[in-house]
# Entry
Amino acid sequence: MEIDDIYKNYMYDLYRYLFSLSKNHHTAEDLVQETFYRTYLSLPEQNITNIKAWLFKVAYHTFIDDTRKNKKQIPNEEIERLKDKESSAWTPEDQVLQNEEYQQLIEMVHQLRPKHQHAVILCDLHELTYEEGAQIMELNINSFKSNLYRGRQALMSKLNERRNQDE
Amino acid sequence: MSDDQNYWKMIDRSKKQFDENTNIDSNKILKKSRHKALTTNILISLAVLLMIVPTLTLLTYFYYGSGGHDGRANTQIKVASDVIEVTEPNMFVKRMELEETIDFFSMDLNFDVYKRIGKEEYRVGEYDIDYMLDQPAFPNRTFFLDRPHPEIPPRDEPSYFIHPALHVPYEFKKEWEIVQNVPDGTVVEAYISFSNPIRPDDIRDINPGRDPDIDFLWLAVDTGVEKKVLDSEGLPVTPIGYPIYKDPPTWTPFDNRQDNSEVFKEILNHLENHEEQATKIARAKTLALDERIDYIQENGVNIYGAVVTGPASEIRKLQDNEYVRSLKVGEVKLWNWR
# Structure
């Protein structure tokens, strides 16, 4: 049962990560389940030293596979997009009750360039180290750092812009 | 407050808020994932297990179907029937009738052996040979014979054909007695040995104009080792030779299309390639093929004995024949000489 306790510790992190990537509650939940399914299948063969990084890597691949699969269903694409809109169209109550701020943050992150996005999500939003992030994105550490730096700068300026608007 | 601090504070706050509002059942998710993984594993194992039998069967058929000109199974069948035809006097396998059962990397070969006595063929035994891959186990032989040959060939003494260089054992006197006392109205299979080795074509001189009225069934070939009844390594050998069919059945290689002695040489060469398997199936401990092939190449095919069949009255006449030195009686059957 030990391994399950470790998994539970990272469950929220994984959910948040997959939500950050997919921007959809249902997709994120399904992908969390798929991620753990994959870890259960492959765990006995691998000697894992860094569970968190490994879980994130598996989660990322799960997300990529899922995106690819959905892309193939071309006739459904339009419907999916509508669905996504629906689920991300928040009612006023939701906005009060739910994670309004994070939602907005993610919307902003998604305006960044894809590589910057992912670097920011990994390092700033989920506290992975540079090495771990670079490994997941399959980049060398220097280009990962530069992606992260540029993404962070862009995000900060967007945040400032918004604060100025609010004021 | 600096931009940097603002940034981190903002992230921290929104994260906390998000996590507080997130409502996911971690136990349920883990349980579901684990269950799904377990099911997948079981299904994969099941599929692998189910694939074992078809894979083995396929590999086995591929194994027996491939290798050599007509596949390993057919090669072994040919070796088995050839070795019986050349080492068991007047005994043959009807190659169309043999049964093979192929299991995982093993083959079970079952067939009957026949002798011609008088004018008819009689089923005289069964062979059961188990092969592991292409290696046969010692065959299970069952013979229904009145006078079978010894299962293990005796050392140092010939048991039915006597080479001209050896003297005739005392017991062979009794054989003429048997022939004298066998009633008329029967047909006899007899092993006769000659005073001198002769060419295959000269056997007709023994019964010129068919007097005595007998048929030659099998000829024993002098291959050098018969003088000692031992091969160069001191192991006992049994006679080797080839059959003669007046009206050859379709399945035999001795089909009179070319001289039987030539076919005999070809078969020896083929058997030499599979000598280990052939020796297992033969009754003799050794076939000494290398030695025998060399001798035949040097000296040609010479006959020193033969299996003959005919009515008892005709066989009796052989006692006074100048070519015949000794005789041993094989099977005796009721009259069928027409």
Remarks:
- Residues 141-166 of chain A form the longest helix (26 residues).
- Chain A has two domains: 1-89, 91-167.
- Residues 53 and 132 of chain A are 6 Å apart (CA to CA).
